[in-house]
Amino acid sequence: MDIKLKNRHRISALLSFLIVVAAAVIMTGLYPFFEKEAGRHEQPAYEDQAFLRHLVFGNYVLDLEQYQYANGVVISPFEHFFPEGAYELKNGSLDGYAEQTAAAEEGAGNPGDETAPAPEADSQIPKDETQAVGEDTTSFLEDEYYGNLTDEEESYMAEERQEYLRNLRQNCMMEYESWNRYFGSIRNAIDFQVLDENGSILMNYAKDRNILTDDSYVFRVVMRYDGHGRMDVMQLGGQDTSYLLNILQKFGEVDPMEEYYWEQYSSKPQFKLSNPKNITFAYAMTEQQLAEYSLARSSSWGSYYNSGRVAQVFAGLGIFVALAAFLLSCFDVTRADDSKVLRAPLGIVLGVGAGGIGFGYSLTSLVAVTNHGSLYSGLIRANFLPKAADIMVKLWNVFWWCIPFAIIYWAVLCMRDVFHIGFKRYIRERTLCGLFYGWCAGLCRRFYNFLGSINLQDNSDRTIFKIVGVNFIILTVLCSLWFFGIGALIIYSIVLFLVLRKYYRDLTRKYRILLRATNQIAEGNLDVTISEDLGVFEPFKTEIQKIQSGFKVAVDEEVKSQKMKTDLITNMSHDLKTPLTAIITYVNLLKDDNAVPEQRKAYIDVLEQKSMRLKSLIEDLFEISKANSNNVTLNLVDVDIVSLLKEVSLELSDKIEESTIDFRWNLPDEKIVLPLDSQKTYRIFDNLLTNIMKYGMPNTRAYIDMKRDDGGVVITMKNVSANELTFNPEEITERFVRGDQSRNTEGSGLGMAIAKSFVELQNGKMNVEVEADLFRIIIRWPVEQNPVEEDKDEEDGGVI
User: Fold this and answer.
1) Nearest to residue 33, comparing CAs of 314, 395, 445?
2) Mind listing the pLDDT tens digit for each residue in 721-764?
3) How far apart are the first and last CA of the chain?
4) Which of 617, 669, 616 is nearest to 640 (CA)?
5) Starting from the edge strand earliest in sequence, which strands make up the sheet with 774-782, in order?
């Protein structure tokens, strides 16, 4: 391909990218227009089913508030809506409930008793059942629930009954919290009043207005509950009153507890939720309240689809992108010849194009979510700066809009090729039917050429032909009694010959490939690959690859082992010889009779220093030997690694100040307790911090971070190396390997190896990463939750 054609392709690709991005940017820039149009097509807020549902279920919230206010008591929703259940849960049975109910009705009850509230006059227990409870409650429960049971079975059933009531109480509390939460989201946006059966106002949140008579409200609904808890809509005002009436009556007939907890709620024996009785609830909204609530609620998804503006603008920009793609393809007509992506079959192009258009239409919901502010608020909660969050939201929308426009652009480029290669060739090469026809024609040609290549002088062909001939004779004898079978026999013989010949040749070819590969491996070529399909010998390909991998691993391990042995002897000799030579030298100096006491004291100090150095080397060698042979005894205790790391830093504070390295500590405030060996873990931190001070560049910063991450604790230590990091990070934790390859600094080369061994012995992982001169160590230990804490987490709830 010449340079001019390449440049044309690049310009065409750049223009394509700019057109797609420009269309996506225009789409994103029109979001305020879409929001305005959606607001024009949005239905009134009070026609939303969720809004009406919150109103109906808010009746239960106001009923409980009114009861508490009127009686001067604070009771739980379970006691108010399930008085019989609350009484039985407290006392173990309904004995005495009828008497207490009657006393409460006569004014003899104690309204301040929270555990035994006086139920309303029309209780949910039927009259016949109430009478039975008053006469002989125990026998009634036994006949109704338990039947003729033994004392043991009756005790078990009673415990099961109590468990059922506790579950019902918990579900009632949870459901009431849901009603209160949702009703609370709208109660400040509406006027409402609570009235008794005589029409007297019990609770008034409508200021100086009367909801029943004021005509300034654009929406009004009055719901009355009779003495049996049945709800009727008494007054209704709004745009579509028949729709509102149907929805409100539907919600009014629903038992809100049974809708979500029907399995436990429908258990036998059961209690039903007590609806409000002999009370009226009136709600209304002025035009100003409706406007303010609609503004706060923002436009819903349905309004964006109803307006159709997003789809219309997307269709217009899609047509623009398609025309631009067609015109640009005339500028670069040979672009499809050099790109397989632009030579996709027509069926796939139409399918993907239709999917792209459908996807673009579905992005209407993305417009609604973005205008609603959900994406922006989510990024703000993720600690993004406001400006960065706004940019991220815009880029995110541009990205998703680029997808459908790019698909449209690609589809037009694919179909534009019909003008370049001609209609017939396009049908033959760019449609699924044409490709299938070409495949069938090629198969027939190959079969014809195969028949023409039969050579009877070939040994394999002659052998196969003899076998087929014998088979033909045998079948002819068998079929001679049936004349019409000879025709079928001829066809069978031809097919059998072709199949056997093909199979034999294919088998021979694959065997030769396999034999050639094994010979190359035997000659030492471990990188030989078999790319051909070996058919029946295919399992041998996998086995040969395993043999190659095994040989490579064995060779690498052997080379590594030999290198480690050589390095071990060299490094150990060097590191042990240095202090030993100094000891011998200063012993000879002490033998000098002319040495003054001050010199002898200096010599003894040097001897002590070198002896301790030699002792440290031997101890390190002993420690790493035990660690590698798994001969280390761990004393596992609960260790707060945060405090342990701080303790190590305090112990090394003098050395840290002398190193001139500025250590930056980022440790959590809370404790992180792990089952570890405190001495071994102390040694890990000591070795790693000492390594930083020894090999870190002076006057730089070192960062020590610790945090929880995915069920584990991660400790990261980063510093800048004083010397160039030219070693392999995986080798630095090997024995006698040092970052200072010149070995000018003090050290055994065992510190990192000991640290890694102790980490792995305590079920942890230690990794070393190198980036330029940045040296990073990452230690991870799994964190197991304390069983005591798990038990505390499971204890939930309080006494009602």
Assistant:
1) 314
2) 888 877 676 666 564 444 454 444 455 567 788 888 888 888 89
3) 83
4) 669
5) 662-666, 701-709, 712-720, 774-782, 765-771
CB 534 within 8 A of CB 541: yes
Give the pairing of strands 712-720 and 701-709: antiparallel
Question: What would the pLDDT profile of 520-579 be if each residue is shown by its tens digit?
Answer: 777 777 677 777 776 666 777 777 777 777 777 777 777 766 766 666 566 666 666 667
Please give the structure tokens belonging to residue 161. Answer: 């009954």
Question: Could you tell me which of 118, 121, 140 has the C-alpha nearest to residue 129?
Answer: 140
Contacts of 771 (CB under 8 A, 6+ apart): none
Measured between alpha carbons, how far is residue 782 from residues 339, 633, 681, 716, 768 in Å? 50, 20, 15, 15, 18
pLDDT at res. 220: 92
The H-or-E segment that residue 719 falls in is strand 712-720
- Both tokens of 63, joined, read 């009923």
Instruction: Record the tokens describing residue 140, joined without a space.
Output: 């009634």
What digits encode the pLDDT tens for the residues 54-75?
899 999 999 999 999 988 889 9
Which residues are CB-neighbours of 210 under 8 A, at least 6 positions away?
none
Q: Which pTM does this prediction carry?
A: 0.39
CB 109 within 8 A of CB 154: no
Looking up tokens 């429908």 gives: 266
Are β-strands 279-286 and 231-237 bridged in parallel, bridged antiparallel, or unpaired?
A: unpaired
Sign of CA dihedral 545, 546, 552, 555: negative
Residue range 665-682: average pLDDT? 89
The DSSP string of 411-470 is: HHHHHHTHHHH-HHHHHHHHSHHHHHHHHHHHHHHHHHHHHHT--TTSHHHHHHHHHHHH
What is the DSSP code string of 88-122? HHHHSS-TTHHHHHHHHHTT-S-TT-SSSPPPPSS
C-alpha span between 703 and 42 (Å, rounded): 56
pLDDT value of residue 289 = 84
Q: What angle is formed at CA 351 by the lines to CA 21 and CA 318, rounded to 5 degrees?
A: 30
pLDDT averaged over every residue in the chain: 77
CB 455 within 8 A of CB 461: yes
| Residue 534 CB coordination number (10 Å) | 20
CA atoms within 13 A on the CB side of 10: 7
Asked if 628 and 654 count as a contact pair (C-beta separation under 8 A), the reply is no
Report helix, strand or coil for 83: helix
CA 741 to chain centre: 45
Which amino acid is residue 608, in one-letter code? Answer: E
d(CA 618, CA 632): 17
Burial class (CB in 10 A: 0-12, 13-18, 19+), 288: exposed
Helix axes 309-331, 3-29, angle to 10 degrees: 170
Residues 384-411: tens digit of each pLDDT: 888 898 999 999 999 999 999 999 988 8
Q: Given the structure tokens 């309204």, which residue do they identify?
A: 111
pLDDT of 149: 61
Rounded Cα distance, 101 and 84, in Å: 10
